[in-house]
């Protein structure tokens, strides 16, 4: 079965072709970050308009790359939510129109389910059940994943998401938008330069006894530092490293606590912050000590992409009996949508 995946929830147009037997055949991504960078954040109306410009050419591109034709597609999976309403509507309406014209099923996918399942695109892939650490621009959650569509929230951020904290802190350090990758690069450079660590930041909620997170205080602590110290290149590097270490320590500590709590031995990391090298290193190091294994998506599938949507669609279409498997011909979107079990039905 050949599934076309369409992702348009935010500022990335992602298109992919996934074949249930042959795997990922081709994928393409257009990122709008440069356009939004000028405004310091995503402008929803500009995002929707740009998705309209990109979706069809990208579909043609992935089909050509796989030497396939529109008529070879057996089903379409698009991101139903959560995300920006206008941006979601672009993907949903194109999916519905194509599905109608080609007389094939159209399936609305939860964006976070896409992120969550993205490590399954790699080999070796984890088996159910596992714990998932979902660290993206809009979410920071620990989930117990018992099977496809069976997600139990173990804990989440009470304020900013980890990616959001990276981006806001990067802005404070003058690193532009989106600053997460730039901040991480600065931190890694400072770390390998062997300079003295001058700054230490708190580990919010690390010992709170639950699996929740809080990152907005860290950003305020960084603001205090930038006001107090002269922002030399060295000071910025030192603060970037102190910030990254604090976030990584909390994410690592809570992930291990989630493994202990559930008794599971597989940890899956998904979402943009999953690209962070220090996070990857520390998680692997600490998981190994307790005999657990960590799985990451390929770097290019950490942030938004079409492959994870095509893949989640393929998994759903192949799993009879799960609640959301009924293909739909409406282009309903859900700008806000919880991932937990009760949230998996489009009617929920
Ligand atoms: P959501 O999926 O919650 O709707 P999103 O789709 O915007 O949010 P992603 O695309 O998964 O989020 O991830 C983007 C986030 O990842 C940004 O906040 C970005 O700064 C962060 N990020 C990307 N690379 C890195 C890195 N190497 N280190 C830290 N953060 C990173
Ligand atoms: Mg993005
Ligand atoms: Fe995302």
Automatic annotation (TrEMBL):
Substrate binds at residues 134-138, 167, 180, 276. Binds 1 Fe(2+) ion per subunit. Its cofactor is Fe(2+). Gene3D superfamilies: 3.30.420.40. Keywords: Acyltransferase, Cytoplasm, Iron, Metal-binding, Transferase, tRNA processing. It catalyses: L-threonylcarbamoyladenylate + adenosine(37) in tRNA = N(6)-L-threonylcarbamoyladenosine(37) in tRNA + AMP + H(+). The keyword Repressor does not apply. SUPFAM superfamilies: Actin-like ATPase domain. Its main location: cytoplasm. It is found in: Cytoplasm. NCBIfam families: gcp_kae1, T6A_TsaD_YgjD. Required for the formation of a threonylcarbamoyl group on adenosine at position 37 (t(6)A37) in tRNAs that read codons beginning with adenine. Is involved in the transfer of the threonylcarbamoyl moiety of threonylcarbamoyl-AMP (TC-AMP) to the N6 group of A37, together with TsaE and TsaB. TsaD likely plays a direct catalytic role in this reaction. This is tRNA N6-adenosine threonylcarbamoyltransferase. It comes from Nitrosospira multiformis. The lineage of its organism: Bacteria, Pseudomonadati, Pseudomonadota, Betaproteobacteria, Nitrosomonadales. The gene is tsaD.
């Amino acid at each position: 079965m050949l599934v076309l995946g369409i992702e348009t929830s935010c500022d990335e147009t992602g298109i992919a072709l996934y074949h249930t037997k042959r795997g990922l055949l081709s994928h393409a991504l257009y990122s709008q970050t440069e356009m939004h960078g000028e405004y310091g954040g995503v402008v929803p109306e500009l995002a929707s308009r740009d998705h309209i410009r990109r979706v069809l050419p990208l579909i043609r591109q992935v089909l050509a790359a796989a030497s396939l034709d529109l008529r070879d597609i057996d089903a379409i999976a698009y991101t139903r939510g959560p995300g920006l309403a206008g941006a979601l509507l672009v993907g949903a309406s194109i999916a519905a129109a194509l599905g109608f014209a080609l007389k094939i099923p159209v399936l609305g996918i939860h964006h976070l389910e896409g992120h969550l399942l993205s490590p399954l695109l790699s080999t070796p892939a984890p088996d159910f059940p596992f714990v998932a650490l979902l660290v993206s621009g809009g979410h920071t959650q620990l989930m117990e994943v018992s099977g496809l569509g069976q997600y139990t929230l173990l804990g989440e951020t009470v304020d900013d998401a980890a990616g959001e904290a990276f981006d806001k802190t990067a802005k404070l350090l003058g690193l532009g938008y989106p600053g997460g990758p730039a901040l991480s690069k600065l931190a890694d450079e400072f770390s390998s330069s062997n300079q003295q660590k001058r700054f230490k930041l708190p580990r919010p909620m690390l010992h709170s006894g639950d699996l929740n997170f809080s990152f907005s205080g860290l950003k305020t602590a960084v603001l205090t530092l930038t006001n107090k110290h002269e922002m030399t290149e060295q000071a910025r590097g030192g603060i970037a490293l102190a910030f990254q270490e604090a976030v990584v320590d909390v994410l690592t500590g809570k992930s291990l606590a989630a493994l202990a709590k559930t008794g599971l031995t597989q940890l899956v990391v998904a979402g943009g912050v999953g690209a962070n090298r220090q996070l990857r290193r520390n998680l692997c190091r600490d998981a190994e000590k307790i005999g657990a294994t960590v799985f990451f998506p390929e770097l290019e599938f950490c942030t938004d992409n079409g492959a994870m949507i095509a893949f989640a669609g393929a998994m759903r279409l192949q799993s009879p009996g799960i609640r959301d498997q009924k293909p739909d011909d409406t282009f309903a979107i859900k700008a806000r949508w919880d991932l937990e079990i009760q949230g998996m039905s489009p009617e929920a």
